[in-house]
């Protein structure tokens, strides 16, 4: 199908779309033939046929800024004292809805770059399309976040397919499980995938040395990692207890830990949650949802994780290793901070 034909078919679908995302067709976002700014600030591509005949204006607009939490740690514990030395910038993270022919197929937390490639690759690997030529048009559009999540960077990657593929998409929607939304539009899906959480209570107050003890207990409890160093771990540490669970998935590892704590009647707010992985916004949400106030990880958290930890009242710690760590939010839970 030609670019003009694809655009006309797409506009007809959007004009008849009753979803609350209305207020303009997808084609209104970028005038045909104009360069669009990419999320990293570079000039985007003009409209034209890409590989496999894809008509693309997919470079996308700039990513909306998140809440006002600092991008740098509040301070760093060096093992002997506090300082304010520079630390690596946290990576960007955004909620990205994959929208195909006007229907949301999934919501991904992703680095907001090369999203046209992400959408096309997702469609291929998930079996939504058989070849790049099945896509007739593609866009990346910054959208207003859900009302309950005003600071959330939110984008839609919109793919439009050649006629005849819609039935397969509808069947896939009926059979899907997991963190997808209502299917009305990308914004609704994002709201469903990332519901707001209540602020956590004060909870356990840790000494700086407790962070090192928690990370040490996490390392010592990784029995499966010794056999196959391709596995994540989540641990709980308090002065009375150390508990570790492992899994190939970092989210699964945390869920296993939460289940183990619940089965034993242990309050997650009474200690430190420690993880071997980087800390993304979904892990922050899981931790806050169970009422734990301290989350420490071995890597730098994402910018959105920092923002949400600040909003949820959670103390977020990154680069916790060898007796040092970066403190990003709510220092009141670290004694002497």
UniProtKB/TrEMBL annotation:
<dbReference type="Pfam" id="PF02634">
    <property type="entry name" value="FdhD-NarQ"/>
</dbReference>
<feature type="compositionally biased region" description="Low complexity">
    <location>
        <begin position="54"/>
        <end position="73"/>
    </location>
</feature>
<protein>
    <recommendedName>
        <fullName>Sulfur carrier protein FdhD</fullName>
    </recommendedName>
</protein>
<dbReference type="InterPro" id="IPR016193">
    <property type="entry name" value="Cytidine_deaminase-like"/>
</dbReference>
<feature type="region of interest" description="Disordered">
    <location>
        <begin position="1"/>
        <end position="89"/>
    </location>
</feature>
<comment type="function">
    <text>Required for formate dehydrogenase (FDH) activity. Acts as a sulfur carrier protein that transfers sulfur from IscS to the molybdenum cofactor prior to its insertion into FDH.</text>
</comment>
<dbReference type="GO" id="GO:0016783">
    <property type="term" value="F:sulfurtransferase activity"/>
</dbReference>
<dbReference type="GO" id="GO:0097163">
    <property type="term" value="F:sulfur carrier activity"/>
</dbReference>
<dbReference type="InterPro" id="IPR003786">
    <property type="entry name" value="FdhD"/>
</dbReference>
<comment type="similarity">
    <text>Belongs to the FdhD family.</text>
</comment>
<feature type="compositionally biased region" description="Basic and acidic residues">
    <location>
        <begin position="8"/>
        <end position="17"/>
    </location>
</feature>
<dbReference type="GO" id="GO:0005737">
    <property type="term" value="C:cytoplasm"/>
</dbReference>
<keyword id="KW-0501">Molybdenum cofactor biosynthesis</keyword>
<keyword id="KW-0963">Cytoplasm</keyword>
<feature type="active site" description="Cysteine persulfide intermediate">
    <location>
        <position position="182"/>
    </location>
</feature>
<dbReference type="GO" id="GO:0006777">
    <property type="term" value="P:Mo-molybdopterin cofactor biosynthetic process"/>
</dbReference>
């Amino acid at each position: 199908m030609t670019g003009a034909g694809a655009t006309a078919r797409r506009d007809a679908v959007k004009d008849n779309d009753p979803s609350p995302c209305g207020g303009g067709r997808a084609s209104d976002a970028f005038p045909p033939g104009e360069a669009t700014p990419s999320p990293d600030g570079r000039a985007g591509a003009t409209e034209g046929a890409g590989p496999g005949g894809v008509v693309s204006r997919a470079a996308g607009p700039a990513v909306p800024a998140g809440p006002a939490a600092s991008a740098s740690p509040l301070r760093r514990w060096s093992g002997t004292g506090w300082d304010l030395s520079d630390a690596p910038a946290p990576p960007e993270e955004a909620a990205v809805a994959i929208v195909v022919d006007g229907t949301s197929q999934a919501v991904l937390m992703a680095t907001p770059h090369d999203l046209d490639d992400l959408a096309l690759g997702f469609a291929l690997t998930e079996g939504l399309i058989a070849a790049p030529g099945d896509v007739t048009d593609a866009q990346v559009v910054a959208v207003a976040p859900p009302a309950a999540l005003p600071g959330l960077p939110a984008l839609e990657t919109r793919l439009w397919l050649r006629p005849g593929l819609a039935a397969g998409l509808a069947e896939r929607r009926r059979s899907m499980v997991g963190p997808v939304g209502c299917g009305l539009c990308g914004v609704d899906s994002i709201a469903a995938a990332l519901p707001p959480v209540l602020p956590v209570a004060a909870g356990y107050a840790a000494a700086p040395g407790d962070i090192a003890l928690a990370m040490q207990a996490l390392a010592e409890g990784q029995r499966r990692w010794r056999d196959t160093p391709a596995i994540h771990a989540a641990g709980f540490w308090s002065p009375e207890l150390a508990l570790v669970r492992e899994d190939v998935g970092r989210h699964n590892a945390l869920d296993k830990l939460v289940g183990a704590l619940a089965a034993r009647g242990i309050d997650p707010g009474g200690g430190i949650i420690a993880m071997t992985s980087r800390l993304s916004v979904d892990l922050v949400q899981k931790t806050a949802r169970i009422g734990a106030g301290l989350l420490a990880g071995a890597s730098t958290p994402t910018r959105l994780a920092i923002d949400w930890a600040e909003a949820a009242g959670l103390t977020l710690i990154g680069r916790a290793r060898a007796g040092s760590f970066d403190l990003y939010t709510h220092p009141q839970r670290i004694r002497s901070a």
